[in-house]
Amino acid sequence: MAKKTPAPPASKPESAETVALTPPKPALVIRAPGVYAITEAEYHADPCVQPSLSRSVLKLMVDKTPAHAFITHPKLAGLDDPASGEADDEAMDYGTAAHEAFLQGHHANIVQLDFRDWRTKDAKAARAETYAAGGIPLLTRSHRRAMRLIDALEEFRRQTGAFTHGKPEQTLIWQEERRWARARVDWLPDDPSEWIWDLKTTAGSASLDAWTRVCFDKGSDIQAAFYPRGAECVRGEPPRGMKFCVIEQKPPFAISVFEMSPIAIGLAEAKIQAGISLWDNCLTTGQWPGYPWETQYIYPPPWVIRSWEDRAALSPRAMDMLREHREAGLGGQFIESGNFGG
Known about the structure:
Elements: E1 34-36, H1 40-44, E2 52-53, H2 55-63, H3 66-72, H4 90-103, E3 110-113, H5 121-132, E4 136-139, H6 140-160, E5 166-176, E6 179-189, E7 196-202, H7 208-218, H8 220-235, E8 242-248, E9 255-258, H9 262-285, H10 302-310, H11 316-327, H12 330-336
Parallel strand pairs: 2-6, 3-4, 7-8
Antiparallel strand pairs: 1-5, 5-6, 8-9
């Protein structure tokens, strides 16, 4: 077997001047409450001087457990930020394109790539290069649709006056007692008393029924209470509230405008207060518990009970137990306390 010829040693620079070293950019650290124009990456890395609460972290604290919040927080375990997402989904790129072009006017960042799909080697390489350059790659058919969607949003702005007299993608940094909090606002009005706007694109329906089904899963109720709270803290005046502009990603690019009801806001404020208290306790103790290991009863939700009552399929014993359950007043208690999941 032929012996390998050793590779020649790598040449060394003759002097320090021959090597151009670019020091890594230091992480952004914000030490004072205020309104900041920072990048999305800087926001998701948590620029606060100490670990801060965001809408997504709050949702994990109250809907799941502190352990879930700990594992995803960039300044704690930092495995993943649930709100940052990954730029590998075309529907997400489509929404990002709408934000870039409509809110920020960065049309040049949207790059049209003439491929049938993303499955070929050349398509994947072109897409990766576009991401690396800071662009948003869209297939030709998606690019045409995105431009029409942006035109629909511009017409909405012209007719309603929404998304005017303000700034896009602003970050609010404030303190909840001794803990830090942050929020990235799609559209922050110049007038502190005016509406805060959030832009959503959806591959589904923008109808009231459809949005009602998904908005609580997305944490939009917490967002609608948390963002105005932060705006009041840093600007000294409460905004009128938060509105959601939801536009469908397919023709006719229908648009709906939503506001969370006072009942929804009241429930969200209770969630926020509970989340802040839990967050403070976890940071103080260093303990981030998961789900309890004690055995828990699973009670049937109302729709299950109604379904079987209508079919007269409950046994006499089950009917007696259900009657006792209702007389004890436990049904509402368990349902309202969220013991069915989350």
